User: Fold this.
Amino acid sequence: MVYKILFEVKLLHEFYLTDRAGKNIFELNSQAGRLNFLKARFESDQENINGDIAFEVPAQAKVIFDHYHLKLLPAYAGFKIAIGVIPEVLPGGVKVYQPRHPLPDNLSIPVLAVKKSARLDGFTNGKMERVLPAAFYFSNDSAITGDRIWPFLSADIPAFDGSVAYEQGELLKFAANDYREFYRDDADAEQWISLSGTAFANENDQVLLPLNFYYAFPKSSMVSKVSFSLKDKDGNLLDKIQFENDKAYRKVLLAIDEKKVLQLPNAKADGQLIYTLEVEGDGGYHKIHKVIFYQDEQEIRNSLGLILMKVKASQPAYDLLDNDGRLLAQKQPDGTFNPGPPVFELNFKSKLSFWRYINNRRKDLKAGMHPDFLLSKNGKLISKRPRAVTHTATLYRRPDNTLYYLPNPEPYQTIILESNKMYSDIMVQESALFPLAP
Assistant:
């Protein structure tokens, strides 16, 4: 049987795709540029996200893959889906490919991004304090999480809301093509870092839950009486769960009746999958969460998220087949593919941490060193701005745009949370770079 690539997905993570000068793949505006960046990393045998992620077919979807002659193939920083085809030569010598078993327009092709270890959580951007253990849901279809920007599979980043207290590293949208990352400086003033790139995995994508999960209340809350209302997309109440205690809850276990909700991967991927979880507690606690449910609890708990690709998407640019039901890839008479199979992308930001230099003998470091980049505080030197954690050591950039070396954190070291700020501690010896205080 002849197999050809139906589509490809690239998972692009800032942690692995940043060079020594601090330039990352998101600064490249064209997909061709980003793919060339990846090609260069591959040819130089650079580590990539596949060291932390395995792409797998959900157990309940294997029958779909068998029936439609689909195969999941590994690729550098992602995966490909191949399909059994019947080649056909058109007038003029162009070769096209018809699926051996026709794909229905509403067919969904699911792939799980399974975490190989907890290491990924240590360097991937996300909220410090999460109330729901939701995994990511990505799709080429906008029915569940809204329109997206070609060729990315993530939902649009949340719009800035002046009434919300944001955490270090949160991504916000201020206007079209104006995306920023939040932090507070040493004086606790709100600051923003402008982002290169237009689409990143974000809070609007983290909606996928198992049927049984813990709801974790923020540390600042004092909720001892709470009700959870589960509603369908039309606002109809499906279930109400209540808790009451003589002291504040830190978390409660919710069990959703599988008979009351649709669940992926078997359910049709449309708006009927969307549910609202409304939480009301004493002390004025009130939250509304958009959620969808996943049937296999073990699969989704071990996963970064689910990538669900529909044959015909709500935005035509994201379709997997042309209007004649053929693969989008066409082989030209000279042997090249033009166009090639569609390549979709997922962008992930790294955690943003302040770099804190500490003498390895716990002595005070001399104040005022490296003033372009560092502040002195309690005998330590701390970066003025938080920096993205990366696998490759990066250089600081002077105001005149020249580069400057200072030690980096170890790639996978634990980030420390103190007073709602994240720090990467770097132990340094007494030296010309880091002399001790008089």
